[in-house]
Amino acid sequence: SEFHGCVMHIQLNGETYALGEALSVAGLLEHLQFAGRRVAVELNFEIVPRSQYETTHLKDGDVLEIVHAIGGG
Question: What is the C-alpha to C-alpha distance for residues 20 and 39, in angstroms, rounded to an integer?
Fold first, then answer.
């Protein structure tokens, strides 16, 4: 039933990634243990502002790139 629990597949940094629940960008970062780290998130080739991580919900087939932010600013 573990397999049955899969809700959606996204592309994450070029790899197919199965999610067991519908997550927001913030939820995904937490799931991947990126929460609190300096990362940039691109969703379907558009940068997601940090202020929208909680309210941006992922959909089946979304394409995400998560990039470690380098330096300050």
Answer: 23
Phi, psi (rounded to 5 degrees) for 8: -160, 160
Q: How far is CA 20 from CA 27, 28, 40, 52, 63, in A?
A: 12, 11, 23, 22, 17
pTM for the full model? 0.83
pLDDT digits (tens, 9 = 90+) for 31-72: 999 988 889 999 999 999 999 999 999 999 999 999 987 765
Could you list the beta-strand ranges (E) of the chain.
Answer: 8-12, 15-19, 39-43, 46-47, 63-68
How buried is residue 70: exposed, middle or buried, by Cβ count under 10 Å (0-12/13-18/19+)? exposed
